Amino acid sequence: MIFRALAVIPLLALAACGASAQAESGPWHNDIVATTFWVGEVIGSGPNDSQRVSAYVENWYASYGGCDGVVKDGSCETEPRTAANDYFPTQMTPKQNPFYLDLPVSDPALKDRWVQIQGPNGNTCYGQIEDAGPTLYDDRDYVFGTARPANTRFNGTGMDVSPALNGCLGFAELNGSEDRVNWRFVDSPPPGPWTRIVTR
What we know:
The chain has helices at residues 5-16, 60-64, 140-143, 163-169; strands at residues 29-36, 70-72, 75-77, 100-103, 114-118, 124-132, 159-161, 180-186. The two termini are 22 Å apart. Strand 2 and strand 3 (75-77) form a beta hairpin. It is of the alpha+beta class. It contains four helices and eight strands, in the order αβαβββββαβαβ. It has one domain (5-195): Barwin-like endoglucanases (Beta Barrel). A six-stranded mixed β-barrel has the order 1-7-4-6-5-8. A two-stranded antiparallel ribbon has the order 2-3. 14% of the residues lie in helices and 21% in strands.
């Protein structure tokens, strides 16, 4: 894979610093449509329609610890998450951080990177990048720049978030395409439920 130097350098610089999230934050991406996805979700039969794998982990399902939700009739379904359980799944114990997301660039430099997200009601939560998407895998002008997401599907979504982030951010729907967020890269998050398990 060929990396555009200007896109990778800021991430490497962030990774090299040990300062607080506030001091080492990137620019905001505002008013971005976000949808929900989860480990174990299968939405079709195409090569990119299964969340049993990710852009970075061939067997994400096993690495994560199984279905990030509830298995019903052999299908992995999502479930609402609440603060009472730190937004963790209720029927399984994850081996990796349940506060995960994707952005539409497939680049190994992004795996496990921290992102600060502001939800539609002003909630602020943090998550780690564990997949690429939605729909696109090379939208560098959006992810590393100031462009709007190039994706036109699912209401032009520019990010998928996990069920834990869906609950933490206070989304109106469990699996909708109307919620909007602001987000930016950060070097590290403050303590919170997103640091109970950190994916490395």
